[in-house]
Design a protein that fits this description.
Layout: E1 18-20, E2 34-40, H1 45-61, E3 66-72, H2 82-91, E4 98-100, H3 105-109, E5 117-121, E6 127-132, H4 137-148, E7 178-179, E8 199-202, E9 213-221, E10 226-228, E11 234-240, E12 243-249, E13 256-262, E14 280-283, E15 287-293, E16 300-307, E17 313-319
Parallel strand pairs: 2-3, 3-4
Antiparallel strand pairs: 1-4, 2-5, 5-6, 7-17, 8-9, 9-10, 9-11, 10-17, 11-16, 12-15, 12-17, 13-14, 13-16
Amino acid sequence: MSVTFERVELSAFDGATEWLGPEPSGRPELRGRAVLVDFWTLTCINWLRAQPYVRAWSQAYRDDGLVVVGVHTPEFSFERDSDLIRQAVAAREIDYPVAVDNDYAVWRAFDNHYWPALYFVDADGVVRDQHFGEGRYERSEQVIQRLLGVERELVSTLVEGRGVEAEADWQHLRSPETYLGYARGENFASPGRIAYDESRAYELPEDLRLNQWALAGQWTVGRENVLLDQAGGTVACRFHARDAHLVLSSGGRAPIPFRVLVDGQAPGGSHGVDVDGNGDGVLQEGRLYQLVREQAAIRERTLEITFGEPGAEVYAFTFG
């Protein structure tokens, strides 16, 4: 996508509902500064994998005059919770100011459409470059250096993401992001029809084809998510990837235990960071949970997650 080189007014940030960050006032001084604006939302796996680079740039070029501004614009309703955003800021070690953009005012001011999105703004307030999604890290850092008038070894070449921040295994990734709410849900495979916004009992099919998903137990399928109405409900999917993640929320309820099986067995050494080798985990705050990181040959697998208490809200599978 070509860059339009439009001027960004400081008023673009006036719509922020709150500022989080190291400065007492929250909102940084941007006039006459080179600025990197990073749009994110806390459950986005693409942002999580790009975040180590933004963090490294902020630290490497702060003394050269770079100001990094995060803009948290929520994809799902529960991501409007400031406490959850603060937890994400702490977990990702974000040490630059973050505008909480619950009303999408900053998003609209930039005419943005993506998570993550980077805007590179010069000291005159002109957007000199932009990038959407993951990748292109070395070129992005070169843009930062041009804005600052510096030239030195790139820190991007030294970045190594860990845990959920690790780069995807693109060579073996054959499963797309999969939403479960009816507004964007596809490839639902449980027998019978979906009852929109009504509680209904579902069953798993005899077989799941690649990238299909299904429910078992008593669930309510809403626009954004599926909500478990009775303990013991299961979500299953068939995927081909090294990593399997699930966006979950408890809706403010007590912690909800869950169990993950892969092809009917405990994941063992291929468990994700949010479950143990037996497949046991606990849903607490709303965020992205890593369920599987495959240590053996990557192939088609069937993942099942069963919740021990009602109230689990399940939003989307993502893979890596």
